[in-house]
Amino acid sequence: MSDHELLDRITVNAEVMAGKPVIRGTRLTVDFVLGLLARGASADEILAEYPGVSPADVSACLLFAAKSLADTTFVPATVAA
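^ thats the sequence. predicted structure below, dont judge the formating
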């Protein structure tokens, strides 16, 4: 599946979830899915919990995040010792 096809799975509508990017046809935000993955959930666990979500939708969330950060400088906060 091409990047364009994956990114078409993500929509932004000011009237849905306060304009946050969501998986098309759902109210699941990209940041919610990324948060699940960051906390250790597997794609299979997400698919089992949200039957309307496909493996390509999870990939689309990851690609959306990667593309969103590609033109941005991101520096994590450092913790003072």
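DSSP finds four helices and two strands in the chain.
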